[in-house]
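Supplementary Note 3. Input sequence used for the single-chain structure prediction.
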Amino acid sequence: MKILILSDTHGQNRTMYDVISREEPFDMLIHCGDIEGEQERLRTKVDCTLHVVAGNNDYDPHLERMKVFDIGRYRAVLTHGHRYRLYSGYDPLFYLAAENHADYVFFGHTHVPVIHEEGPVTLINPGSLTYPRQYGREPSYIVGTVEDGKKPVFEIRYLKE
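The predicted structure, written as discrete structure tokens, is reproduced below.
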């Protein structure tokens, strides 16, 4: 199973759709929030499982703030992250994982790509395609591969690659 993980696109939809075209085909798309009203159009543009949550710049009352779902035999939590004081550390996300018996927490908000494994939990933030904040400020996203009998692999990718 191939998974495309995006976040913090902030209405810059051309870049998002360019990445989608670049990475197709995939089986699941996860958007970690700040999609700014594009979620319904996105649903019509992709032919896969789609998980989207609201970020601090999303005002659609129908978007969930957090979702829990399965990826094969793994449990995942999806949240934007703005309610968890992420600039002080990741402890709140590890607690969120524990509360939901999750193997993975997908989040955004910081605009910095992260794949951080600690114990049985992996935190995954694809960064931002629009306003990257990490050193070098490269727009980023993540592609994951989940295969039976193998440990899932997640890779940060950059727009310039």
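The chain has one domain: 2-158. The beta strands are 2-6, 28-31, 49-52, 66-71, 74-79, 104-106, 113-118, 121-126, 140-145, 153-158.
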